[in-house]
Amino acid sequence: MQDCKRVVAVCLSPKHRLSKTPALEIRAVAGLGIEGDAHYGTTTQHRYDKRKAPDRPNLRQVHLVESALLDDLGSRGFDVRFGDLGENIVTAGMSLTALPEGTILRIGAEARLQLTGLREPCVLLDRLRPGLRPAVGQKGQGDKPFLRGGVMSRVLATGFIRPHDEVTIEMPAPPHRPLGNV
């Protein structure tokens, strides 16, 4: 089961706040995101981005994080639970940030997500746990920070997503572009 690419946890929050609440299942809706989540919509729902460009397409419908990041933070003394980093889906068995832009993740029986970019660490992380933001950050292209193990995606096909669902990776056609911050 260690090498199996799978979902470990799913989370959502109807309100704009850093942390999300773990759930038994979430429903990904094509073109919109996670039903009942504050980031649900065709245009950007991120509070800061919405003020700047409210009509911009929503490339941040679903936030995914690797369980290895949460394990690492725990081993470094941070009490971080599923959903605390604002993620909708926690995965195991794959390096999300190493996948190229446009990669499609088939999750469960029907849901399909397309990776759009890297998640930048939010300033609110240090309010959750002092020192958390630098602990989760890593330098990417042009020294722009990104959340280790954190990627953003948009929903291509509607479906329920549950813990233990298998994840299948479909690589985009070459040439592959690395994920950039969105």
From TrEMBL:
It comes from the Bacteria. Residues 21-170 form the MOSC domain. SUPFAM superfamilies: PK beta-barrel domain-like. InterPro entries: MoCF_Sase_C, MOSC_domain, Pyrv_Knase-like_insert_dom_sf. Signal peptide: none annotated. One of its GO terms (molecular function) is catalytic activity. This is MOSC domain-containing protein. The lineage of its organism: Bacteria, Pseudomonadati, Pseudomonadota, Alphaproteobacteria, Rhodobacterales.
